[in-house]
């Protein structure tokens, strides 16, 4: 129970991962509920959320993760709606994240690694910026 006396209940699968999370207020009314699914190799594949904003009806949204093996290739929010947002990811031959394409951005975040496989450089370009920003580690 939190300081506002809201109660949260989690149901876990056999691998101890949450599959259903329900939050209710002190009167037992539903505030938020999340259904979480996993693929056959254990990657989170989807979440379905329902919430009751200030008691004014039900608002719901979905999040979906796409994987190739253990590599995340896409993250879709509000899939199939006019508000859909998609992040896509590419990886190098070692499985390291190479590029992340954000919604409404034509230039990706670019990740580069040193010979030990540690992140060495992150480069990105802000939406209306003429030049890219680069960080070296």
Task: Please explain how this structure is put together.
The chain has 137 residues and is an all-beta fold. The chain is built from no helices and eleven strands. Strands 1-2-3-4-5-6-7-8-9-10-11 form an eleven-stranded antiparallel beta sheet, with no helix packed on it. The mean pLDDT is 90.
Residue runs with pLDDT of under 50 for 5 or more positions:
none
Structural class: mainly beta
Instruction: Give the radius of gyration.
Output: 19 Å
Strand order of the biggest β-sheet? 1-2-3-4-5-6-7-8-9-10-11
Task: Report the biggest beta sheet as strand number plus sense, adding barrel if it closes.
Answer: 11 strands, antiparallel
Instruction: Write down how many β-strands occur, each being a DSSP E stretch of 2 or more residues.
Output: 11
């Amino acid at each position: 129970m939190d300081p506002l006396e809201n109660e949260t209940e989690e149901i876990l699968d056999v691998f101890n991962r949450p599959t259903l999370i329900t939050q209710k207020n002190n009167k037992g009314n539903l505030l938020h509920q999340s259904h979480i699914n996993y693929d056959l190799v254990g990657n989170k594949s989807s979440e379905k959320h329902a919430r009751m904003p200030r008691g004014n009806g039900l608002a719901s949204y979905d999040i979906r993760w796409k994987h190739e093996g253990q590599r995340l290739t896409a993250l879709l929010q509000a899939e199939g709606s006019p508000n859909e947002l998609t992040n896509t990811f590419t990886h190098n031959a070692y499985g390291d994240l190479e590029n992340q394409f954000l919604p409404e951005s034509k230039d990706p975040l670019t990740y580069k690694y040193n010979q030990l496989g540690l992140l060495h450089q992150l480069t990105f370009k802000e939406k209306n910026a003429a030049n890219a920003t680069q960080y070296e580690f």
